[in-house]
């Protein structure tokens, strides 16, 4: 009986984690997070990397942004994005980012480049 109970709880935990990850992933891609933080969460230009950060820190920051609290220009930009997030959405989004796996099958595009010449006039 204990083995069945353990297996059931273990299976439910795995299913719950998969659901949190996929819901967080859907939120990340549908709410425009990729525009500043990149598709792999490593950050673009001056925007911070979010991938593999602690869930606790991500949740704390999102809750502050949702409350309208920001400390600099970049954090103030986050307020409109976080304003309408529910507690469950913040939980799922932070879980996704903490566990974000790099997608091996997607090409990586280098955004930095060297300019040569005068532009081909």
Brief description of this entry?
The protein has 121 residues and is mainly α. Helix content is 55%, strand content 0%. It has a domain at 27-98: Orthogonal Bundle (Cytochrome Bc1 Complex, Chain D, domain 2), CATH 1.10.760.
Mean of residue pLDDT?
A: 81
Strand percentage: under 5%
Name the poorly predicted regions: none
Calculate the terminal CA-CA distance, rounded to whole Å: 79 Å
Q: Give the ordered list of helices and strands.
A: HHHHH
- State the major sheet: none
Considering DSSP H and I runs of 4 or more, what fraction of the residues is helical?
55-70%
Give the name of the CATH superfamily of the domain at 27-98.
Answer: Cytochrome c-like domain
What would the principal axes of the Cα set say about the shape? globular
- What would CATH call the class of the domain at 27-98? Mainly Alpha
- At CATH level 3, the topology of the domain at 27-98 is Cytochrome Bc1 Complex, Chain D, domain 2
Q: Rg from C-alpha positions?
A: 19 Å
By secondary-structure content and strand pairing, the structural class works out as: mainly alpha
Number of helices: 5
Q: Can you tell me the CATH architecture of the domain at 27-98? A: Orthogonal Bundle
How many strand units? 0
């Amino acid at each position: 009986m204990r083995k069945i109970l353990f297996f059931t709880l273990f299976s439910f935990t795995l299913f719950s984690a998969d659901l949190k990850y996929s819901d967080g992933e859907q939120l990340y891609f549908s709410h425009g997070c990729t525009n500043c933080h990149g598709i792999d969460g490593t950050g673009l230009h001056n925007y911070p990397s979010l991938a593999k950060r602690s869930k606790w820190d991500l949740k704390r920051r999102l809750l502050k942004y949702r409350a309208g609290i920001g400390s600099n220009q970049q954090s103030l930009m986050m307020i409109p994005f976080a304003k309408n997030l529910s507690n469950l959405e913040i939980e799922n989004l932070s879980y996704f980012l903490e566990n974000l796996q790099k997608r091996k099958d997607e090409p990586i595009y280098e955004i930095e480049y060297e300019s040569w010449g005068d532009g081909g006039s």
